[in-house]
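Before relying on records like the one below, remember that each one covers exactly one chain. Contacts with other chains, cofactors or solvent are not represented anywhere in the record.
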Amino acid sequence: MKFRRIFFGIALALIVASRAEAVNEYQAVSEIPQNNGQVVTTLTSENSGLNPEYSVPLLPGTRPVPPNDILPNVTATSAIVIEASTGHVIYSRNAEQKMFPASTTKMMTLIMALESGKLDEFVHVGPNADGVEGSTLWLNQGEYIPLRELLYGMIMVSGNDASVAIAEHIDGNVANFAEHMTKRAKELGAKNTQFKNPHGLPDDNHFTTAHDLAILAAYGYKLAEFEEIVTAKEKSYDWIHDFPKIIHSENQMLWIYRGGNGVKTGYTDRAGRCLISAAKRDGIQIISVVLDSEYMWNDSILLLDYGFKNVKFEKLVKAGEVVKNLPVMSGRKKSVKVTTTDEIVMPIFGNDEPYEVVYDLPKFLNAPITNGQKVGKVRIMYGGKEAASTDIIATADVEQKSFFRWFAEKVKSFFG
């Protein structure tokens, strides 16, 4: 145990030391000559979505690229870019091919945990979690750790031990949890996915596709705390055994890419380098997935860049927009203006299916009414599914009439 802690301390120190070199695989230089004398393009904040302090040489891949591929510099065997709210596919390469997901599996483990409603419970670390192979948080058997904190550790440093502890806490054992993972993934639209464990260690029957992972990531952003967890760069917890009790995210895209907000790295010898990455700008969430990539950071930068360059935006609903005057029953006012709370900006994909704006409102309101009271909803529909929404609220207080005032008005109306 002492050796494990010493080893963990050394590993953590190396992570902290290297974090500033976010693109250490591709040290930033202005020109890198290839064997044929050509110059490799360098991605910078001026020609890419990179943050200003970073620049990344675009290294050439060694694998054959599919004919007529519009992103030949992407080195991944399988890749996809989607817009999250609609699921619209902006680019894909072998995106329906079954692949090994490695630790990107943990994104589904996170989704299952968030849906369990048990985030405030303490997780008992059992013998199956203690010492599990691969990347680890160095948990010890017998510890009790808050589920929410384990989720941060699992996503940030890809703790396999955390994922096993979480699975056993929620479903009793890994097999049951994996079965429920698969069932839930298919319900969410990931039709070509099968899970056999919560961490992604190799198993012939544990597979997914780039498209399925993108679908699951898009769903994740609809869940409370998902984005908060997958965007965390640094956390400190008392249960971390070694000084300085800090963990740092392995996802370098959180530092190097403008608007980067997720999601999960992965690697095994069989799966290769895998990365689900994401970025959000001007309210538009773009998700990319690369599986079996030679240069997963480069690939993800190229894919996210392509996604943002090929999505235009349209404001379909303005914040504070007056929807209508709604009649008020039994109120001191006959009607009240109702308005939208937030704006809705949606991506436009050229000749693709148009959006439908649906207003869910009652025919009238009953007094009393308070200013800011929710009275309805605006929904943006795409492909028969809700892609976005915002509330409709009343803009004034409306008191209820007293019985005597109501009676007097009725008498006055009767005698007309």
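Residues 315-403 form a domain with the Peptidoglycan synthesis regulatory factor (PBP3), Domain 2 fold (CATH 2.60.410.10).
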